[in-house]
């Protein structure tokens, strides 16, 4: 009986400790611990324009080139807090 209870506890802990976004498990913990990052979708109006010295987001925010990180999947990603402060921005190699 003890081992059955232990198995249930282990199963529950395993289920609740799985990362929420396995497709993007490469996000560094310093950028948001898998919770505040997303791929930017041009279809949703989330366009990124290259400007001198960085990128301009669809809402006018500017990301300086020196703060961007390299995107391993060749897509733009944004990690931000609920108040829209940017934590991390990922740009593909040679992004424009």
Structure overview:
- The chain has 96 residues and is α+β, with helices and mostly antiparallel strands.
- The chain has one domain.
- The chain contains 2 helices and 7 strands; from the N terminus they run ααβββββββ.
- The protein has a 4-stranded mixed sheet with strand order 1-6-7-5. Strands 2-3-4 form a 3-stranded antiparallel sheet, with no helix packed on it.
- A hairpin with a 4-residue loop joins strand 3 (54-57) and strand 4 (62-64).
- The longest helix is centred in the N-terminal third of the chain and has 15 residues, at 2-16.
- The chain starts with a helix and ends in a 5-residue tail after the last strand.
- Residues 5-22 have low confidence and may be disordered.
- Keywords: Signal.
- Residues 1-23 form the signal peptide.
Question: What's the structural blueprint in terms of helices and strands?
Answer:
Layout: H1 2-16, H2 29-32, E1 37-39, E2 48-51, E3 54-57, E4 62-64, E5 69-70, E6 77-80, E7 86-91
Parallel strand pairs: 5-7
Antiparallel strand pairs: 1-6, 2-3, 3-4, 6-7
Signal peptide: 1-23
Keywords: Signal
What tags apply to this protein structure?
single chain, 3-stranded antiparallel beta sheet, 4-stranded mixed beta sheet, 7 strands, 2 helices, globular, 96 residues, alpha+beta, signal, 20% helix
Kindly summarize this structure in a few lines.
This protein has 96 residues and is an alpha+beta fold. It has 2 helices and 7 strands.
What is the overall shape? globular
Helix content: 10-25%
Q: Count of DSSP helices?
A: 2
Provide the gyration radius in Å: 18 Å
End-to-end Cα distance: 61 Å
> What topology, given as strand order, has the largest sheet?
1-6-7-5
The ordered string of helix (H) and strand (E) elements is HHEEEEEEE
Number of separate strands? 7
